[in-house]
Amino acid sequence: MNSTRRQLLLGLATLVPAVSLLPGSLLAAEPAPMETLPLVLHSDQGPHHLEVEVALTASQRSRGLMDRDHLDPGAGMLFLYGGLQPSRNGFWMYRTRLPLDIAFIDENGRIVSLHRMHPCESSAPGDCPVTRPDASYRAALEVNAGYFEDQGIKVGDCVSWPGSGEHCAGDPS
């Protein structure tokens, strides 16, 4: 056995018992709570106010609403990106237990695509379907399934949140 491999194995041998000494709370740590902010959907039927969690980092966006059994009616998750995302980049429902609606939002705050997503029951991530928008997007909003239809939200409606600019300023609110 070469010396590099021997050092690696010895290092692993000392690491495994050390990990077992960590408190259980560190081993099964819940992700840190995400920032929340108010969001408004501007539609023909008036403004619709939500309080949404904001997924800003790649890690937060990857986790999304996984492993949750409930999402309050006036809640959701806003996925924000630093740049425009191509339409080939979509969302999946791996380990997501709740049926969701998703709105893909362009750089002007307009909804460019709406979809319903159903939980994926496969334990293999590659077996879960990917929901892709019809156009490039800068943000995506997930809410409980049926919300957009119930509230009359449609493609072309505007979405605003603190820091998003005044792109919905001409809409009634």
Indicate the topology.
Elements: H1 3-20, H2 24-27, E1 36-43, E2 46-55, H3 58-63, E3 75-85, E4 91-92, E5 100-105, E6 111-117, E7 130-131, E8 137-144, H4 147-151, E9 158-160
Parallel strand pairs: 2-3
Antiparallel strand pairs: 1-2, 1-9, 3-8, 4-7, 5-6, 5-8
What does this structure look like?
With 173 residues, the chain is α+β, with helices and mostly antiparallel strands. The protein has helices spanning 3-20, 24-27, 58-63, 147-151; strands at 36-43, 46-55, 75-85, 91-92, 100-105, 111-117, 130-131, 137-144, 158-160. It has a 7-stranded mixed beta sheet with strand order 6-5-8-3-2-1-9. Strands 4-7 form a two-stranded antiparallel ribbon. It is globular. Mean pLDDT is 83; it is low at 4-28.
Terminal CA distance: 71 Å
Number of helices: 4
**Which percent range describes the beta-strand content?**
25-35%
Give the low-pLDDT segments.
4-28
State the strand order across the main sheet.
Answer: 6-5-8-3-2-1-9
What structural class do helix, strand and pairing data support? Answer: alpha+beta
User: SSE string, helix = H, strand = E?
Assistant: HHEEHEEEEEEHE
Major beta sheet summary: 7 strands, mixed
Q: What's the shape?
A: globular
Computed CA radius of gyration, to the nearest angstrom: 20 Å
Number of strands: 9
Binned, the helix content reads 10-25%
